[in-house]
Each structure stands twice: as structure tokens, then as C-alpha cells.
Amino acid sequence: MLHTPRGGAGSGTATADSRLMSIGTVLNVLRDEFPEVTISKIRFLESEGLIEPQRTPSGYRKFSPEDVERLAHVLRMQRDHYLPLKVIKEQLDALERGESLPVPAPGRPGDAVAEESEVPTAARVGREELLAAVGIDEAELDEWESYGLIAQLPDGGYDASAVLVAELVGELGRFGIGPRHLRVMRAAADREAGLVDSVVAPLKVHRNPQTRTLAQARAKELAGLTVKLHAALVQTALGVRLP
Q1: Which of 144, 156, 205, 232 is the most buried (most CB within 10 A)?
Q2: 0.85 cut: is pTM over it?
Q3: Interaxial angle between packed helices 23-30 and 65-81, expressed in degrees from 0 to 180 and rounded to the nearest 10
Q4: Which of 55, 86, 83, 89 shows the shortest CA–CA distance to 70?
């Protein structure tokens, strides 16, 4: 990872500075592969020590191409392998030392041999971590929970899905779309989830373990399709040209 540019002053330093990007530019670069990434997510990964962008004298973050590559690697490990940040950091630290650690197989719900740290629910944060990651206070989080937008796990923590929802609710809030406006989205999501569940329900109760595992994969696939359809319908209703 690139830290403060080294070497003498002059064209070398100027060239290095020209390669640095603002957090907004980094967001645009990453969204080609990770459309759900947010500024809050990038800041949270920084707070967890996954990246160390440079700072201008006025305190603005400046990211090198190496920082962006590291961010993409972190997001890929979360998306493809469901790894908790601690494990991802160990992987990155090993790579920087020139070592190579085996990447755990993707965790699959229902897989009897998967350890807890390898499944999606393992990427958990505490309440204080969630507040810091999204940049909100206790009252705001309480309000979001009262509207059913976010829910705590039985142990009092929050999973990766809750963190993502919190980031998106926060982003929408910047446009004046508050939690009370999002109740319709919550209700629509529940209806869509019910539709998907009705399709995979026979597979979930099958006596064959492989069939039950297939139910999870099928539910994930159908969920992805419903999200894409929902986005397309909203864009069509708004008259927004689809990509």
C-alpha cells in the first residue's frame, strides 16, 4: 500500500500527487464492480485498518491506485468468500510480507462443515461500530429500528446486511428521504421475500441435505433477480434510461 510519496521534490512528487484520488472518485471507480458500495462503507473499512489513505493538510482523504486495488480486494473477499474483516486483514498483511495464505472456501448456509467465521452472518459489528461506520447517533438508529429497517441479532450485534442497509438509509437521508418514507420499501421487501420463500419452501423441508442446500442457493438467485427487476421498474417509472 502506498503511503507518503518518497523521493525528491519536483516532477516525481508532482506525478505521484496526480495519481491520488478523492473519496468520491474512488467511489465511482469501485461502483463499476461493486454497485452497492458507499462512502460510509469506505470510511468504515478505513476505521477498521483495512486501508490507510493519505491526508491533505486540510484533512481530506487522498487514495492511491494501490489503495483502490486494496479496497477492491477487500470488497471481493467479502462478496465472494463472506470473510470477516479480521481474516481479510490477515490475508492482506500476509501478501504485504510476500507470504500467501489459503483463501477459505465460500461459506454456504446449511453447510455442516463450514465454521461460523466463514458464513455471511459472521461479519458482525457492535452497536458502537455501526454508529461510527454510518455516522449517526443513537436516536437515529433507534428511529430506523422502530420502522423495521434494521434489526439487531440475538447477541445484540448487527450483520453485514444490517450495515449495508444502514449505509443506504443514511445515503438516502442526504436527499431528504427519511425512515418514515422508507416504510413502503420495507413492506415491498417483505412481500418480495414472501414470494421467493413460497417458491423455495418445498426444497427447504426436503429430507435430502443437498436439496436443502440448493434451496439456499435458489433463494439467493431469486432474490438477486427480484432486486434487478425492482430497480428496472423504478427506473422505468421515473423515465430514467437503463444502462
Answers
A1: 144
A2: no
A3: 40
A4: 89
| Residue whose C-alpha cell reads 484520488 in the numeric block | 21
Kindly report the number of other CB atoms within 10 A of residue 97's CB atom: 8
Q: Comparing C-alpha atoms, which of 192, 180, 197 is closest to residue 231?
A: 192
Q: Residue 4 has what pLDDT?
A: 37
At 141 the pLDDT is: 92
Name the one residue in this structure whose C-alpha cell is 500527487.
Answer: 17
Contact 75, 30 (CB under 8 A): yes
Q: What is the 3-state secondary structure (H, E, C) of the chain?
A: CCCCCCCCCCHHHHHHHHCCECHHHHHHHHCCCCCCCCHHHHHHHHHCCCCCCEECCCCCEEECHHHHHHHHHHHHHHHHHCCCHHHHHHHHHHHHCCCCCCCCCCCCCCCCCCCHHHCHHHCCECHHHHHHHHCCCHHHHHHHHHCCCCCCCCCCCECHHHHHHHHHHHHHHCCCCCHHHHHHHHHHHHHHHHHHHHHHHHHHCCCCHHHHHHHHHHHHHHHHHHHHHHHHHHHHHHCCCCC
When pLDDT is averaged across residues 164-180 and rounded to a whole number, the result is 88
Instruction: Of 92, 114, 98, give the one whose Cα is nearest residue 48.
Output: 92
